[in-house]
Amino acid sequence: MPQTPPCSTEALLRLVLAGGAIAPRRTLLTRFETPADALRSGPAAWRAAGCSAEQRARLALPEREALARGLRWLEQPGRHLLPAGDPDYPPLLGELETAPLALFIHGDPAALWHPGVAVVGSRTPSPTGGELAAEFATALARSGLAVVSGLAAGVDARAHRGALEVPDGRTVAVVATGLDLAFPPRNTALQACIAERGAVVSEYPPGTAARPGQFPARNRIVAGLSLGTLVIEAALRSGALITARLAAEAGREVFALPGSVRNPRARGCHRLIRDGAQLVETPAEVVAGLCGAAAQLGQALRSRLAAPTEQARPTVPTPSPALPPDYQRLWKVLDENPTGMDSLIERSGLTATQLSAMLLIMELDGKVVATHGRYCRKP
Question: Cα(160)–Cα(107) distance, rounded to whole angstroms?
Answer without folding.
Answer: 15
